[in-house]
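Final report, closing paragraph on structural work. Over the funding period we assembled a curated collection of sequence-structure pairs, and we close with a single example.
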Amino acid sequence: MGACNNQADVGALAAFQPRNARQVAANCGLAPCGPSNLQDAFTTCVSDCVEQETGLSSDCSSCYGELAWCSRVGCLTPCASDSCAPPCLTCPGYDAVCIDALNQCAGRMSIDCPET
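Its predicted structure, as stored:
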């Protein structure tokens, strides 16, 4: 899609370090958005929360809403603690499925965890 592949969003992501949008999405997914089985409501809530917290565009923030939905079962809690730490990065399916989907939506490789 290329939703985050623009100068403004790449700059916002880089400026937001050491925090990152993945961690914000996890935090938003736990609260205020909370657990939900309604994908549209959950992803919209997380997307809006990420946009407010990071200054990313709504299109780019929606990629992080989808990331939170993808990782909501089992990965939001370890990722909210530190989205670049091994417990998050090794959460089953997170890297292989969720991060690949984030990269595809964003239109570039994630720069949220520079060392990965």
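Helices lie at 7-15, 21-30, 39-54, 58-71, 76-81, 86-89, 94-106. The chain has a mean pLDDT of 89. We thank the funder for supporting this effort.
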